[in-house]
Amino acid sequence: FLSVDSLHLGPLADFFVNVLQLDAELNLRTEYNSKDSEIALTGKITDIILDSISLGYTAFNANSGPLSTQFNLQSKSSAWSVSVDAKNSNDITELELSIDQLNLAKLDSVLDLISNDFDLAGNIHGKIKAKNGESLRTEGQLNFENVLFRSKEYGTVIKIDEQRISMNDNQIKFNKFILKDEQNNPLELNGS
Asked: How far apart are alpha carbons 63 and 58 in whole angstroms?
């Protein structure tokens, strides 16, 4: 149906955005199954480099037919490993976000290209699921390991050490979730 074995994205991106330099390569393949009226799309953007910062790769798959649609996205670099899965079938939509690794210090160097107003450190990981049928249902958790947010403009520091936010029955739950300032003064959050 359609196949792009290799498309260098740097010159194309430079045409639209002249502030940041992008270098990447796109591989794309689509297929159409006329018997089942299904369309499949697979692709990968490899060796993504933004202003000399390596962003790893992003891969995606999508399948769509008369009864259901599925989509998967994976992005991996030295700073993160994230995947998103989405399904829609019989008027029920399911979404799952998996964060295997989100290294905030490495992500901070990418965000500095946009704004240098804050510093980030630490790691976040977890999984969140959402399902929408007759009503929306969410569940999952995010884990914070030695996380630090520092505002350069205001000098504000927020530390989150070994804490978890849980989601269940459409509620975000804080169970002795502790934020600390620069002097380690705690602010404890409980409830939902």
From this structure: 17
